[in-house]
């Protein structure tokens, strides 16, 4: 079974594009807070959506907005103009959900140090990563 659930914030505003055949798609990256390690650290995951799903995401989401994505992993292989082979892995979006806006009140939980979306700055981008 190949199933992924991921909740993150958009590193950049999603941009709707169209293939030569007229099918709409959207590619973006999601910043997901790390559970362990450095505070305010995040991992970035590439997502791709097609058709009406892509159109809806591009219409309602901007940089820094949280989203819950359900999809599956896909690895693509391509050769660049120099003949070198490259691989990339992305999450193909099957469904998504809006994340309710936090009213600013944090729940008091002294037993856990779990990260939350409040720990990741809304303006965090891939350019902010140290690697």
Tags for this entry?
1 helix, 131 residues, mainly beta, 44% strand, OB fold (Dihydrolipoamide Acetyltransferase, E2P), five-stranded mixed barrel
What does this structure look like?
There is one protein chain. The chain is mostly beta strands and 131 residues long. It has a single domain, classed as OB fold (Dihydrolipoamide Acetyltransferase, E2P) (Beta Barrel). Helices cover 8% and strands 44% of the residues. The protein has one helix spanning 51-60; strands spanning 4-10, 15-18, 24-33, 42-50, 66-79, 85-98. It has a five-stranded mixed β-barrel. The longest helix is centred in the middle third of the chain and has 10 residues, at 51-60. The chain is globular and about 45 Å long.
**Biggest sheet, open or closed, and with what strands and sense?**
5 strands, mixed, barrel
Q: Could you estimate the helical fraction of the residues in percent?
A: under 10%
SSE pattern? EEEEHEE
Provide the β-strand percentage band.
Answer: 35-45%
Low-confidence stretches: 107-115
CATH topology: OB fold (Dihydrolipoamide Acetyltransferase, E2P)
Q: What structural class do helix, strand and pairing data support?
A: mainly beta
- Count structural domains: 1
**Per the principal axes of the C-alpha atoms, what is the gross shape?**
globular
Name of the CATH superfamily: Nucleic acid-binding proteins
End-to-end gap: 32 Å
**Mean of residue pLDDT values:** 84
What is the topology, as strand order, of the major beta sheet? 1-3-4-6-5
CATH architecture: Beta Barrel
CATH class: Mainly Beta
Task: Indicate the radius of gyration in whole angstroms.
Answer: 16 Å
Number of strands: 6
Number of helices: 1
């Amino acid at each position: 079974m190949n199933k992924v659930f991921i909740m993150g914030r958009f590193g950049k505003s999603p941009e709707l594009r169209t293939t030569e055949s007229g099918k709409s798609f959207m590619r973006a990256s999601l910043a997901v807070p790390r559970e362990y390690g450095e505070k305010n650290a995040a991992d970035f995951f590439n997502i791709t959506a097609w058709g009406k799903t892509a159109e809806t995401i591009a219409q309602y989401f901007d940089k820094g907005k949280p989203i819950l994505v359900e999809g599956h992993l896909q690895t693509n292989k391509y050769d660049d103009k120099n003949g070198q082979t490259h691989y990339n892995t992305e999450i193909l979006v099957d469904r998504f959900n809006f994340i309710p806006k936090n009213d600013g009140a944090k729940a008091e939980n002294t037993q856990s140090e779990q990260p939350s979306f409040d720990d990741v700055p809304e303006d965090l981008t891939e350019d902010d990563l140290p690697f």
